[in-house]
């Protein structure tokens, strides 16, 4: 059996069990093994196939951005899809709940009164960011 992929937030392990005729339909004189992949706390699909997932898209003035640098004090430098470099603030509702790193794709909402600054509204997971790149949105 191939390697098991790891889903978001889950401990993954493989287990081999002996199985009988009730499970496989094999005659009782033939021994068999059943390979199971078990994931505790799993929240996503375990298949290697990539399916299109509906993602959160920009609303209003929001734009896609890539994190270029961590500045500290809950601030990051981002390069927005409109070509502007901005300093973005990570709001309190995301601090210590959503971890943002350099290279992540985020959704930012530029400030109305200061265009070189913005608020982070959403962070995309790696597979979601890959989907955005494949669709040409980022």
Automatic annotation (TrEMBL):
Can you give the residue ranges of the S1-like domain? 51-125
The record ties this protein, via Gene3D superfamilies, to: Nucleic acid-binding proteins
Q: Which InterPro entries match?
A: NA-bd_OB-fold, RNA-binding_domain_S1_IF1, TIF_eIF-1A, TIF_eIF-1A_CS
* Keywords from the UniProt entry: Initiation factor, Protein biosynthesis
| UniProt GO molecular function | RNA binding; translation initiation factor activity
Keyword Protein biosynthesis on this protein?
yes
Q: Which Pfam families match?
A: eIF-1a
Q: Which PANTHER family match?
A: EIF-1A
**NCBIfam families (alphabetical):** eIF-1A, PRK04012.1-1, PRK04012.1-2, PRK04012.1-3, PRK04012.1-5
Q: What does this protein do?
A: Seems to be required for maximal rate of protein biosynthesis. Enhances ribosome dissociation into subunits and stabilizes the binding of the initiator Met-tRNA(I) to 40 S ribosomal subunits.
Q: What family, per the record?
A: Belongs to the eIF-1A family.
Protein name, as recorded = Translation initiation factor 1A
Provide the species name: Halarchaeum salinum
Q: Which gene encodes it?
A: eif1a
